[in-house]
């Protein structure tokens, strides 16, 4: 028979106590699902775009203030950015929250395409993102208070992730310099907490200025700004053959003139450049600016550009990711009701997916290193500053792509709320683990330093420009 020592008894007792505390956290969040679901759905209804999220921010600030968090508004020169903090001393654990919607994606919470009559929609689920992170921060606060633990839990209200690079300004301002670990999540169509990356991104609006004239009676007197935009686009499209195959360039003409019979004296095109390495992004972006300069020269117009955003690639931290994955497995996935299964089947049909599998929402994906995502996030800049871990939970019907009307629809239902609570529980447990095991923070910091290099110096891709508060206007 194995000899039972005093130390063994103490360890076993500690494990039982810890399990009870974990169960208490999960039970408390489960009991508050309706409360947080109502908050998320209010923000879904607000559907405010980047740097204009006044109502969403006010609601989250009120929720945190009522839970004894100290609120600092308008950080980094951004009216809709804020920090909410509870506790004192080390470690300092940050939880990131977003709340901006996407323009032009209004949708009712039904399984058919139908506008809700708004200018924007939460097609990336940030109404759930901000709310779940708020719920997690509050639950960690409750745990710290109940157990008389020292440490600081800090919620970062992060605006304009969709192209506005909101977090970059917070990082540039030094607001993460004293943070020991940062936790985040994102709505998705599956549950995972795998170490994956995302692409660096740099974006700008290129503005061409020409000479207006009557397009029929005096075309020779005009110089078309639209010609400048189209000449630039043509050169950039030819350039695609001569950049790395895993790079991405997107653009949209945001202003091409007002009437065909008027030679436009102003035109604008909005460009994104993405790649897995920020240095390659800068190189490609510089080539695009040369194309813009050449286009202006060739069309007799002038050109100026405004840098809108720029983000680092995401740097995963496996030390933190393993802790988060363990907690996600403990929490489990999303269970659908019969009505939700019917909704899900209709969504799958609208996506043209054959043999769609709704059970994926209940499954936790296996732990593995992921290939880089072809999306981008301003969490990348945070991840080069402080050890960072993230996860995704099934807030959308399996198979649903982000930035789709189907994502907006599911996010406005209890399917979205259920996935949101999976994230809230996982993040809360992960933060608590870090308060209980500070040695893991030490290990995570060593991993960060090794990955980014000892000589690393943070340089934001958007330079020293002020926050682009009007980039959606």
UniProtKB/TrEMBL annotation:
Pfam families: M20_dimer (PF07687), Peptidase_M20 (PF01546). Residues 202-293 form the Peptidase M20 dimerisation domain. Keywords: Carboxypeptidase, Hydrolase, Protease, Signal. The lineage of its organism: Bacteria, Pseudomonadati, Bacteroidota, Flavobacteriia, Flavobacteriales. The keyword Glycoprotein does not apply. One of its GO terms (molecular function) is carboxypeptidase activity. Transmembrane segments: none annotated. InterPro entries: Amidohydrolase, Aminobenzoyl-glu_utiliz_pB, Bact_exopeptidase_dim_dom, Peptidase_M20, Peptidase_M20/M20A_hydrolases, Peptidase_M20_dimer. Residues 1-19 form the signal peptide. This is Glutamate carboxypeptidase. Coiled coil: none annotated. It comes from the Bacteria. It comes from Flavobacterium ammoniigenes.
């Amino acid at each position: 028979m194995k000899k039972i020592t005093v130390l063994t008894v103490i360890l076993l007792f500690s494990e039982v106590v810890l399990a009870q505390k974990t169960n208490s956290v999960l039970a408390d969040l489960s009991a508050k699902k309706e409360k947080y679901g109502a908050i998320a759905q209010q923000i879904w209804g607000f559907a405010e775009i980047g740097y204009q999220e006044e109502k969403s921010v006010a609601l989250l600030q009120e929720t945190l203030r009522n839970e004894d968090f100290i609120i600092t508004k308008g950080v980094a020169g951004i009216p809709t950015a804020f920090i909410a903090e509870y506790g004192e001393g080390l470690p300092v654990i940050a939880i990131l929250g977003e709340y901006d919607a996407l323009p032009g994606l209004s949708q009712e919470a039904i399984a058919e395409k139908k506008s809700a009559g708004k200018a924007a929609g939460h097609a990336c689920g940030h109404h759930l993102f901000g709310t779940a992170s708020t719920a997690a921060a509050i639950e960690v606060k409750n745990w710290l208070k109940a157990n008389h633990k020292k440490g600081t839990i800090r919620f970062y209200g992060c605006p304009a992730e969709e192209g506005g690079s909101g977090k970059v300004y917070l990082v540039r301002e030094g607001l993460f310099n004293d943070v020991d670990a940062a936790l985040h999540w994102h709505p998705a169509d599956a549950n995972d907490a795998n170490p994956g990356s995302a692409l660096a991104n740099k974006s700008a609006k290129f503005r061409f200025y020409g000479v207006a004239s009557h397009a029929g009676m005096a075309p020779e007197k005009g110089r078309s700004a639209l010609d400048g935009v189209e000449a630039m686009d043509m050169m950039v499209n030819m350039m695609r053959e001569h950049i790395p195959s895993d790079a991405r360039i997107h653009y949209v003409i945001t202003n091409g003139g007002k009437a065909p019979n008027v030679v436009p004296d102003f035109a604008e095109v909005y460009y994104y450049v993405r790649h897995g390495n920020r240095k390659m992004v800068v190189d490609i972006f510089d080539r695009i600016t040369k194309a813009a300069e050449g286009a202006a020269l060739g069309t007799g117009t002038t050109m100026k550009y405004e840098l809108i955003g720029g983000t680092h690639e995401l740097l995963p931290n496996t030390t933190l990711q393993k802790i988060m994955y363990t907690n996600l497995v403990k929490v489990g996935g999303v269970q659908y009701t019969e009505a939700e299964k019917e909704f899900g089947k209709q969504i799958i049909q609208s996506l043209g997916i054959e043999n769609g599998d709704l059970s994926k929402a209940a499954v936790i994906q296996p732990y593995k290193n992921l290939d880089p995502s072809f999306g981008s996030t301003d969490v990348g800049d945070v991840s080069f500053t402080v050890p960072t871990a993230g996860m995704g939970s099934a807030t959308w019907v399996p198979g649903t792509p982000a930035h789709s009307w189907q994502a907006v629809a599911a996010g406005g239902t209890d399917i979205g709320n259920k996935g949101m609570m999976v994230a809230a529980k996982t993040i809360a447990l992960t933060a608590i683990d870090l308060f209980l095991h500070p040695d893991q923070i030490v290990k995570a910091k060593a991993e960060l330093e090794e990955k980014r290099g000892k000589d690393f110096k943070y340089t934001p891709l958007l330079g020293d420009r002020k926050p682009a508060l009007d980039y959606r206007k």
